[in-house]
Design a protein that fits this description.
The protein has 199 residues and is mainly alpha-helical. It is 86% helix and 0% strand. The two termini are 26 Å apart.
Length: 199
């Protein structure tokens, strides 16, 4: 029944694409830092620690941002994430600019997680009230599906003539699609709220 809800399917797609978009580049982040940016292997390890700290901050910050209005927060976060991924395509050749970009990307990569989970629970309570836990679990599965899609797509990009340097902007395209789906879902929310007022 959960998979029969179009509204929930939209959110699952938002989750898979929005979360998976980053993994197009993240899966190959170490090779990008070494082969494109020019960092040493030891430096890459330290940079990944910095990236991890940014991820933790993003997870906490994203929860606070999404607490009152998750769909509004997701629109802003996906927009920022797509922009930063696109920017990374250009900054990857500069060590200093890469570090700045990766801090922003690390924060944004996981900042959408609380909002996505909160939003799917809200919609499940409205559209499938008897299966909220199932909807929440399926959204976690969508996160994992996104990781798989991102890594697979990243591998195709790396093996193509575009190469490593193209993975960030390809990831940005996935996140942009998630943004479009989020805007659509937000419009459906407004339409439903208007229908209730006029009923």
């Amino acid at each position: 029944r959960v998979l029969g809800s179009g509204r929930l399917l939209i959110v699952f797609a938002m989750t898979a694409l929005g979360y998976g978009g980053t993994f197009v580049a993240f899966t190959f982040l170490a090779p990008i830092l070494q082969d494109v940016t020019g960092f040493s292997e030891k430096s890459v390890s330290l940079i990944l620690v910095l990236y991890g700290i940014a991820i933790a901050a993003g997870n906490i910050g994203g929860g606070k941002i999404a607490n009152s209005n998750p769909v509004k927060a997701l629109i802003g976060l996906f927009l920022a994430q797509a922009i930063v991924l696109l920017v990374f395509s250009f900054t990857a050749v500069s060590p200093i600019l890469t570090l700045i970009t990766l801090v922003a990307l690390g924060f944004l990569s996981f900042a959408n997680v609380p909002g996505l989970q909160l939003y799917v629970v809200q919609l499940a309570k409205e559209h499938r009230p008897g299966a909220v836990d199932v909807a929440s679990a399926l959204n976690i599965a969508a996160f994992n599906l996104g990781i798989a899609i991102g890594a697979w797509l990243g591998g195709l990009v790396v093996e193509s003539p575009m190469g490593l340097a193209a993975t960030p902007w390809v990831g940005a395209i996935l996140v942009a699609v998630a943004l479009i789906l989020t805007l659509w879902s937000s419009a459906l929310d407004r339409r439903a709220a208007l229908s209730l007022k006029t009923a």
